[in-house]
Design a protein that fits this description.
337 residues; alpha/beta; Rossmann fold; Helicase, Ruva Protein, domain 3; 2 domains; five-stranded parallel β-sheet; two-stranded antiparallel sheet; 14 helices; 15% strand; globular
């Protein structure tokens, strides 16, 4: 009887999701007018929107990372701010500062660009640690303290950071502990031949980056959708599967088929990974218009959730082992019980 009741509740939830999620297809169709390919990147940005998780995009120059984020903010209609991270940037340039007003003969607060719905932290690894920390504190606490005053950040608040993996000179790599603040780390790859041809054709006649799309949804709709996404049902077996995935990154020797990974893992994922896997899987189920999470949802987001939360040993680096190999081995061997 209780299972039947649960089934009815899931069906009602799916009806609500179907009615509330029309903006998902509209947003995908709108971004396709600007972006060629990169459907997975757009989907990951949607997951960030629905779960309130920040996203780190890593890829070579020219792969539309910045364009994708600007297009997303334009489609949602929220307040957008771009911060170009440079070596001479100061924390006050990000969060704001106290300035003296001669007329009032007193100090007043000047808010920085972090007070927006969408923050594009372009090339975040080009600024020193004190600037990175100022932004990452705002990401975690969702508030900023300037002088004696504390201000809550707007909701939704989403930081979308980019970094270039090939330039090493003049960069300040994010420490692993700080990268943990990002819900997803998405690796952007090259387009295929057909996509490359379409990119060329679009840009021959003019600069396609100057195109703009209208609002297809609003921050208020996003917040309502978040509430529905949080209600997506997750079976206890799927919950335990998530726990197994995370624990396998910490103690691979406790899993018979994964003991060979012990020599490659310096330390595993934090509890933030557990939370991120659950939230991302629920958000993906919402995007697919389902009222329940399936194991494939978890597997789909696992690489982006875990890749920046596993540190490899020197032995792994010496043997050319990549973190994706470790994750793939865990996904291949662990099953939902």
């Amino acid at each position: 009887m209780s299972e039947m009741l649960q089934g009815e509740e899931i069906k009602k939830l799916e009806e609500k999701i179907f009615a509330e999620s029309a903006w998902v297809d509209d947003l995908k169709n709108s971004t396709a007018k600007i972006l060629v390919g990169q459907q997975q990147m757009v989907e990951r940005l949607l997951i960030g929107l629905l779960s309130g998780g920040h996203i780190l995009l890593e890829g070579l120059p020219g792969l539309a990372k910045t364009l994708a984020i600007k297009t997303l903010s334009s489609a949602v209609g929220g307040k957008f701010q771009r911060i170009q991270f440079t070596p001479d940037l100061l924390p006050a340039d990000v969060v704001g500062t106290m300035i003296y007003n001669p007329e009032k003969r007193d100090f007043e607060v000047k808010k920085g660009p972090v007070f927006a719905n969408f923050i594009l932290a372009d090339e975040i690894n080009r600024s020193p640690a004190k600037v990175q920390s100022a932004l990452l504190e705002a990401m975690q606490e969702r508030q900023v303290t300037i002088g004696p005053n504390t201000f809550s950040l707007e909701d939704p608040f989403l930081v979308l950071a980019t970094q270039n993996p090939i330039d090493q000179e003049g960069t300040y790599p994010l420490p692993e502990a700080q990268m943990d603040r990002f819900m997803l780390k998405v690796i952007i790859g090259y387009p295929n031949r057909e996509e490359e041809l379409e990119i060329m054709r679009r840009n021959i006649g003019g600069d396609s980056t100057q195109q703009r799309i209208g609002n297809v949804t609003s921050p208020e709709v996003i917040l309502r959708s978040r509430e529905l996404a949080a209600q997506v049902y997750m079976d206890e077996k799927v919950e335990k599967y998530i726990i197994d995935l995370v624990f396998a990154t910490r103690y691979p020797q406790k899993y018979p088929k994964l003991s060979h990974l012990r020599q490659f893992i310096s330390y595993g994922s934090s509890p933030r990974a557990t939370i991120a896997l659950a939230k991302a899987a629920k958000s993906l189920a919402f995007i697919r218009r389902r009222g329940f999470v399936i194991p494939d949802d978890v597997r789909n987001v696992a690489r982006d959730v875990l890749r920046h939360r596993i540190a490899l040993t020197y032995e792994a680096e010496a043997e050319g082992i990549r973190v994706e190999y470790v994750i793939d081995e865990i996904l291949k061997e662990l099953e939902v019980l």
